[in-house]
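During the first year of the project, the team set up a workflow for recording each protein of interest as an amino acid sequence followed immediately by a discrete structure-token representation. This format lets reviewers and collaborators read both layers of information side by side without switching files. As required by the reporting guidelines, we include two representative entries from the current panel. The first entry is reproduced here exactly as it appears in our internal archive.
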Amino acid sequence: MFGLVPFGTRKDLAANNSPRSIWDVFDEPFFSDDFFPTMSGMTSAGGMRVDVKDNGDSFELTADLPGMKKEDVNLSYQNGYLTIAAQQKSESGDKDDKGNYIRRERRMGSVSRSFYIDNIDESRIDAEFKDGVLTVKMPKAAEVQHNTTINIR
């Protein structure tokens, strides 16, 4: 009958807030709570922080991908869209002398972002991944003059 009903976050319970209306529950983001860290961590705002800078003759994109490895990241540029996709799968665990599990934990997740960045010289795009930060340098394509003189006959 009650299903999934969010009753506030742990922070709200500890803050000793004044009594709230039952209707305030609809203003709260249900999946951004500490109870659902995998859901809140994979949103576009929380999963990958990205800065795009126009340097005049090029664009520079910097994406924070903490805990990721270079092999986990895919980068592509098609039809003016730069897409960053990252997928992480890790396991850790402890075993006793017989090889039985005492504790075993897994973490999996993926995140993807696309950006429309037009007029890029695709052959000169350069990407580097170091210490969990992806840096992509995209030189702008040479401007083509579209001025044409038309002869009148």
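The second entry, processed by the same pipeline in the following quarter, appears below.
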Amino acid sequence: MKAKLLNVLTVCVVTLAVLSPELVVFGIVWERHLELVKSQNLACEVNNTTTDAPALVPYTEGTHSPQTNIQSSDRNVVHQMLTVAEQYKFTTILQWFFLLTPICVGLGILFYDRYLVHRAAVLKEQVEMLERLWHQSIEQ
């Protein structure tokens, strides 16, 4: 049992050692990707506002006010930023999941092995006590 436990713990440690740098690199690349997407979205918003040119159009009763267009574009930017933040949270949770899973599996196996050893020791003590009681009853 100890050899199996040692093999499993070795595999868990090696897996952790292999995955840790990859998770760090993935996190850095993902952050840069999110920054790129955010800058592209902001560039598109700037292009949309400059092509619409609400400030250059004179205000008449039939057209919308420039302030309404600005407020709607602000809402779009806020919505996009919230979406990016949710993706970042998901990525962080995923990174921690991949990092902690091998550690938790290794600790679970270790604690289960200790539990089995403890149960065997308790059972052995109980058997020895019953044998002593049996020998005492025979002697009487």
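For the second entry, the following points were noted during internal review. Residues 55-59 have pLDDT under 50 and may be disordered. DSSP finds two helices and no strands in the chain. Both points are flagged for discussion at the upcoming steering committee meeting.
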